[in-house]
Each structure stands twice: as structure tokens, then as C-alpha cells.
Automatic annotation (TrEMBL):
Keyword DNA-binding (UniProt): no
Domain of life where this protein originates: Bacteria
Designated name of the protein: EamA domain-containing protein
Keyword set, alphabetical order: Membrane, Transmembrane, Transmembrane helix
Segments traversing the membrane: 12-31, 37-54, 66-83, 89-109, 118-137, 143-165, 177-196, 208-227, 234-255, 267-288
InterPro entries recorded: EamA_dom, EmrE-like
Domain EamA stretches: 12-137, 146-280
Length: 299
């Protein structure tokens, strides 16, 4: 079966659903944000060793693209450190809510990065998410404000590396790209472990279980699915779909982490606005395509 746009959306939604568990696992793992991310990228890179030809990877990809992908990998590392930092400074629900601003950042940054015109309805849909974020975050304890700022930085970094991946991956193998980017993230973070990683470096037995699920299911598989979907979808469409991550994640946190104290009635209104933006983009794109196709077939 040919890899269609519909299949790309389905695989991306599966990846986003699995990403919803990353905040839960990050909250459960008893490591600092930096150590947690290092183990995540290290285990993920290790899981891909048998699927890529390491000795030939630079020659097959090309030195310039290899270095570009490695640079993107450092941005991925910074995104995850700030994401889990937001969880530690606030909580899983707040960190996930901040991720919903990714499409707003993407509507501004993607045109600048991939050198394409700004699209008015992308900006409109991105801005449409802001009231939803405000409704969810309104009333949060002031002590969580730093966590919110770190979470917003994490969302901006997502839009940057997603746009860069869209620009540079071309037809490259998603597994090879994942190995290069996360291998580079592993090397980039390693020098900071001693000075910034905290006292606890080695995971506990239960942490090992959570880390393996995080690395293999929520990273290796999801990176492969999301990168493959980028061959068919725009970075903005991808990032807008990623806005479902907080929806999935916060509901999971409600049942698994006892984060119910963060879920006021405003949360549900905010969630509804995010859902309207996500599915509104898809509906708007379909409507525009139908109008364009009608114009093309008219005599």
C-alpha cells in the first residue's frame, strides 16, 4: 500500500499519543531532567545501532547533511531538557499545556526557516490556541511560573527542530536520521552530566523499566513515525497535530499522577479550543484543496 497523506496523519497521531506518556514517565523517573534526557537519548541511539550501518553513515548521508542533522540533534536535546525541567519545576500537566503553543511558534518560525511565505490561516489558528492556553494555566500557583516559562522555551525549540528536519531530511531514512540526531544529543549532553546532572546518575531498578519504555516505545518508534510523516505533511501541520500531546498527556496525568488539582473547568474549555484548532486546520486544508481542484477543472 502506498504511503498516503491519510496514513501519515494516522501514524503521526499514534506517535503523538505515545508522546503523551513521556511526561508521565518523566514525572515517575527519579532522576534530574539532564540525566533523564541523557539516558533517554543514549538508550534510543543504542537501540538503533543494529538498524544503521555506522561505518558508512557519513558517506551515505554526506558530511554536510550529517553535520546539519547532528546540529538539529543538539536542539532536540535542549528541547527535552527544558521539557523535563518544566515538569520538575511545575508538573506534568503544566509542561504539556505549554507544548500546545508549538503551532504558534511554528506559524512564525517555519516560514523563516524553510523560506516560504507566511500563511494567514496558520497564524490565525496558531493565535487561536492562545486563549486555550490562558484558560488552562489561569489560576496556577505563582511558584510554577518558572516552569511555565521553561515549558514555553521547550515548545519554541520543537518548532525549530521540526522545521529544520522538514528542510533537511529530504528522502533520507528516518531510522538513520534518528540515530544521527539522538547520537549527537547523547554526545552533546555528556560533558554536562558531572557538573549539572545532580548527585543521582544511575537509575533505580524501577527507573530502568520506565526508561526502557520511554526510549524504545516513546522515542525510537515515535521518532520514526513522526519523521516519516514529515515526508507527506508540512511542519506546521505536524506541529499542530502535536498539540494533541497535552490533551492526551493531561488526561493520563489525571488518572496516573493525581494531577486533578490542576484541572479546573477552565481546563476543559481550553482543551476544547485546542481541539478546534487542531481539527480546524485539517478541515480548512481540505476545503481549500477542494476549491482549488474545482477551479482547475472548470473550463
Amino acid at each position: 500500500m502506498a504511503y498516503s497523506e491519510q496514513r501519515a496523519y494516522l501514524e503521526l497521531h499514534l506517535a503523538v499519543f505515545l508522546w503523551g506518556f513521556t511526561a508521565i514517565l518523566g514525572d515517575l523517573i527519579q532522576l534530574s531532567a539532564l540525566n533523564l534526557v541523557w539516558w533517554r537519548v543514549f538508550l534510543t541511539s543504542l537501540s538503533l545501532v543494529f538498524f544503521v550501518r555506522i561505518g558508512k553513515i557519513v558517506r551515505e548521508v554526506g558530511l554536510r547533511r550529517f553535520l546539519l542533522l547532528a546540529g538539529i540533534g543538539t536542539i532536540v536535546a535542549l528541547h527535552w531538557v527544558t521539557f523535563y525541567g518544566s515538569i520538575k519545576l511545575a508538573n506534568a500537566s503544566i509542561a504539556l499545556v505549554c507544548m500546545a503553543t508549538t503551532s504558534l511558534f511554528s506559524s512564525i518560525l517555519e516560514p523563516l526557516i524553510v523560506k516560504r511565505p507566511f500563511v494567514w490561516y496558520e497564524l490565525l489558528l496558531g493565535v487561536f490556541i492562545l486563549p486555550g492556553i490562558w484558560l488552562i494555566v489561569d489560576g496556577v500557583d505563582a511558584g510554577m511560573n518558572i516552569g511555565i516559562l521553561v515549558g514555553l522555551l521547550s515548545a519554541a525549540l520543537v518548532s525549530v527542530f521540526t522545521s529544520l528536519n522538514k528542510k533537511y531530511i529530504g528522502s533520507s531514512d528516518p531510522l538513520r536520521i534518528t540515530f544521527i540526531e539522538l547520537g549527537a544529543a547523547t554526545l552533546f549532553l555528556a560533558p554536562f552530566l558531572y557538573s549539572l546532572g545532580g548527585d543521582k546518575f544511575w537509575p533505580s531498578p524501577l527507573d530502568w523499566v520506565y526508561l526502557l519504555v520511554l526510549a524504545l516505545l516513546c522515542t525510537t518508534l515515535t521518532f520514526f513515525l513522526s519523521l516519516r510523516a514529515l515526508h507527506k505533511l508540512s511542519a506546521f501541520a505536524s506541529n499542530l497535530t502535536v498539540n494533541l500531546e497535552p490533551v492526551y498527556g493531561i488526561f493520563l496525568a489525571y488518572f496516573l499522577l493525581d494531577d486533578a488539582q490542576e484541572l479546573s473547568p477552565n481546563f476543559y474549555w481550553g482543551t476544547a479550543l485546542i481541539l478546534v484548532a487542531v481539527f480546524g486546520y485539517t478541515a480548512a486544508m481540505r476545503l481549500l484543496r477542494r476549491r482549488r481542484s474545482k477551479l482547475l477543472i472548470q473550463p
